[in-house]
Design brief:
By secondary structure, the chain is mainly α. The chain contains 20 helices and 6 strands. Helix content is 51%, strand content 8%.
C-alpha cells in the first residue's frame, strides 16, 4: 500500500499566502484522521521563498500509513489498532509483522514469520571477534550501532533497497540478530561467555536467556519478566516521525542500505533528549533517592531557568496529555514489582515526583506529563538489566518501526532524497587576505 494513495488533496480547502505583491493558493492535504497540512512543495518555485521551522515543530516530512498519534488526546495506534489492545492481545513479533506488512498476520503467516526470524538469530562467528576490539566499558549503544553498521560487510549480497527479496532477507536478519548483538555487548562488558541463542525459545525469552544464562547451569526465563518485556517492546515499537525514525528515513532516502540506515537511527536514539532519556531518568531518580528523596527540590530545579536540569522522562514534543505508553508501563511496573515481591525506592520516588509535578503550575501550563521513559527503567531494573542497557532495549523495541518507515519510504512513488534548505546568515562575500597581512 503506497502512502501517497492515502493522502487526499482537499477539494474545498486551500491556503492563501500573500508574499510581497504575489498571492498564491496552496493545496491542503487531508489525512484519514482529518489532520490537515498545507502543501508547500512548489512554494519556492512560485514565490522564491522557503519556509523556516527549526526543530520541524510544524513541518510534516511525509505522509505515512503506519502510526497515528494524537498528542492532545493521548492516542496512539499502530496501523489503526490502539496500543492498549496490541499490548493486551498481541506479542512483539506479531506487532512487528503488523508494522512492517500493514496487517495483523493470520496463524500461518505469523508462524512462518517467527520461523524465519528464529532461523537468523546467530551472528557470523567472525563478528564475535569485534567484541574483543571494544573497550570493556564501551557504551552498548556505541557497540550496537557499530555492529549493526558492520552487518553490511557480511551480507553484501542483499543490500539493494530496491530489490524486494534482498530487502526481505535483510529485514528478517536484522530483527533476528539485534537482540543477539545487544546481549553479546552486555556479556562482554561483564566478562562472561557469550551465550548462543536458543531457537526453541520465544523472542523475549531468548533475549533474557542470552543476557542472563551462563553455560554452567540451567536457566528458565521468568514468565513475569517475559510478559513485561513483550509489553515494553510493543510500547516502543513505533512513534511516527520522531528524531531516530526521521534519521532512518533521511539516511535511507539517499538509497543507503537498511543496515546503514538503522545504524544511524540507533545513534540518533542514543541522545538523552530522545531514547537516552530512560537511562538519564533512572540516574536522576537514583540521585534524588541518594539525596534524601527531596522530590520538591528537583521539581524546583527543573523549573529554574538558570539551571539546565530537566525532569528526565517528562515532557514530549507531541503529547500535551499523559503519554498512553507511560500509563501502560506504570501499571506494568506496579504489577511486576508486586509479582516479584520487590520494593524499589525508585518507583516510590518516581510516583511522588509525578504527583508533585502534575500539581505544579509550571508543568500544568506547559502541559508536561510523564513520557514513555519515565517508568520503563524501573521494570528494566527489576529484570536485572544495567542502566546503560536501557536505551539498547528501546532500540530493540523501535526496530520494527524503523524498518516499517524505511520500507514505506522506498515503496512510495513520491519519495525524494531528504535535503532541507536553509537561510544563510554567515558573512557576505569577502576576499582572502594573504596570511602575513591578517590581524
Ligand atoms: N523539565 C522541565 N521543563 C521542561 C521539560 C522537562 N522535562 N520539558 C520541557 N520543559 C519546558 C521547557 O523548558 C520549555 O519551557 P519554556 O516554554 O519556559 O521555555 C517548555 O517546557 C517547552 O519545552 P521544549 O524544550 O521547547 O519542548 P520540545 O518539544 O522542544 O522538547 C523534549 C521535548 C525534548 C522531550 C523535552 O520535553 C525534554 O527535554 N524532556 C526531557 C527529556 C525526555 O524525557 N526525553 C524523552 C522524550 S520521549 C522520547 O523521545 C522517547
Amino acid at each position: 500500500m503506497s502512502t501517497a494513495e492515502k493522502a487526499t488533496t482537499s477539494k474545498s480547502l486551500t491556503a492563501r499566502l500573500q508574499v510581497e505583491d504575489k498571492s498564491v493558493d496552496l493545496p491542503v492535504v487531508v489525512g484519514t484522521e482529518n489532520e490537515k497540512a498545507i502543501d508547500i512543495s512548489d512554494l519556492r518555485k512560485r514565490t522564491g521563498y522557503i519556509t523556516l521551522d527549526e526543530g520541524f515543530v510544524n513541518t510534516g516530512s511525509t505522509t505515512s500509513a503506519i502510526t497515528f498519534l494524537n498528542g492532545e488526546q493521548g492516542i496512539l495506534r499502530y496501523r489503526g489498532y490502539p496500543i492498549e489492545q496490541l499490548c493486551e492481545y498481541c506479542d512483539f513479533v506479531e506487532t512487528s509483522y503488523l508494522l512492517i506488512y500493514g496487517k495483523l498476520p493470520n496463524r500461518h503467516e505469523l508462524e512462518r514469520f517467527r520461523e524465519s526470524i528464529r532461523h537468523h538469530t546467530m551472528i557470523h562467528e567472525d563478528m564475535r571477534a569485534f567484541y574483543n576490539g571494544f573497550p570493556r566499558d564501551a557504551h552498548p549503544m556505541a557497540i550496537l550501532s557499530s555492529v549493526v553498521g558492520a552487518l553490511s560487510t557480511f551480507y553484501q549480497d542483499s543490500l539493494d533497497p530496491h530489490d524486494k527479496e534482498q530487502r526481505e532477507i535483510s529485514i528478517h536478519r536484522l530483527l533476528a540478530k539485534l537482540p543477539t548483538i545487544a546481549a553479546y555487548s552486555y556479556k562482554k562488558s561483564i566478562g562472561q561467555p557469550l551465550m548462543y541463542p536458543r531457537n526453541e525459545l520465544s523472542y523475549c525469552e531468548n533475549f533474557l536467556h542470552m543476557m542472563f544464562a551462563v553455560p554452567t547451569q540451567d536457566y528458565e526465563p521468568n514468565p513475569v519478566l517475559v510478559e513485561a518485556l513483550n509489553l515494553l517492546l510493543i510500547c516502543h515499537a513505533d512513534h511516527e516521525q520522531n528524531c531516530s525514525t526521521s534519521t532512518v528515513r533521511i539516511v535511507g532516502s539517499s538509497n543507503a542500505n537498511l543496515f546503514a540506515s538503522i545504524s544511524a537511527g540507533i545513534c540518533a536514539l542514543w541522545g538523552p533528549l530522545h531514547g537516552g532519556a530512560n537511562e538519564a531518568c533512572v540516574r536522576m531518580l537514583q540521585q534524588i533517592v541518594a539525596d534524601g528523596g527531596n522530590v520538591k527540590k528537583y521539581v524546583d530545579k527543573a523549573k529554574d531557568k538558570k539551571d539546565n536540569f530537566r525532569l528526565m522522562g517528562f515532557g514530549h514534543r507531541v503529547y500535551k496529555n499523559y503519554d498512553p505508553r507511560a500509563l501502560i508501563i506504570k501499571k506494568a511496573c506496579d504489577k511486576v514489582l508486586s509479582q516479584l515481591n520487590l520494593n524499589d525506592p525508585l518507583f516510590e520516588v518516581a510516583q511522588q515526583l509525578e504527583q508533585v509535578a502534575l500539581q505544579d503550575e509550571y508543568f500544568i501550563e506547559r502541559k508536561l506529563y510523564p513520557n514513555v521513559d519515565f517508568y520503563s527503567g524501573i521494570i528494566y531494573r527489576a529484570m536485572g538489566l544495567p542502566t546503560n542497557m536501557f536505551t539498547v532495549m528501546f532500540a530493540i523495541g523501535r526496530l520494527p518501526g524503523w524498518i516499517a518507515h524505511w520500507v514505506e519510504m522506498h515503496e512510495s512513488p513520491t519519495t525524494r532524497i531528504g535535503r532541507p534548505r536553509q537561510i544563510y546568515v554567515g558573512p557576505t562575500k569577502r576576499d582572502v587576505i594573504p596570511i602575513d597581512q591578517r590581524d
